[in-house]
Amino acid sequence: MIRELAKYWWLMVLRGVLAILFAVMAFVWPSITLSILVVFLGAYFLVDGIFSLAHGFRIRKTDTHWWVLVLEGLLGIVAGIVCLSMPGITLVFMVGLIALWSVVTGILEIILAVRLRKEIQHEWMLVVAGVFSIIFGVLLFMQPLAGVVVISWWLGIYALFFGIFLITVGARLKKFA
């Protein structure tokens, strides 16, 4: 496992750098960080829905399950419209989704650290990143309506520390490459 991870050590570093860039954005523009994410999510749902709908109609003569893509497309379009027309509801949902993602990511990072403990030194950094992710997710679950600015700052703090730890782990993995 360490060989495969080490081969692509730079991906871990890249993830860390992107996390730090996101943290800077969250600190510099806290009031618009989550709003931008909601707009991007809505736009993605809408565009994906349109493409799925078009794909479903294109294959309707050759595939008996074409309706699944059409249904998926319609749901995507509706989800996109909801995101773009009701950003408040979307934001609350998104905060819950971010919280869930953080907890699951944290658990997976800890599992990865345990699996790597005999192969690398300082795997505790991955454990710390995982614990930090879990704490962040639990805080978001406890305070979902704390305000866009506060949540944006929480995201920024999380992304900053997570990025630093990922860069550190990536640098350590580079030694095995």
Span from first to last CA? 12 Å
Mean pLDDT, all residues:
85
Tell me the strand percentage band.
under 5%
Rg from alpha-carbon coordinates:
20 Å
N to C succession of SSEs: HHHHHHH
Number of helices: 7
Low-confidence stretches: none
Q: Largest sheet, described in full?
A: none
Helix content: over 70%
Shape: globular
The domain count comes to 1
Number of strands: 0
Summed up, what is this model?
One of its GO terms (cellular component) is plasma membrane. By secondary structure, the protein is mainly alpha-helical. It is 85% helix and 0% strand.
Describe it for me?
This protein has 177 residues and is mainly α. The protein has one domain. Helix content is 85%, strand content 0%. The chain is built from 7 helices and no strands. The protein has helices at residues 2-7, 9-28, 30-58, 66-85, 87-116, 124-142, 148-174. Helix 2 crosses helix 3 (30-58), helix 3 (30-58) packs across helix 7 and helix 5 runs antiparallel to helix 6 (124-142). The radius of gyration is 20 Å and the shape is globular. The two termini are 12 Å apart.
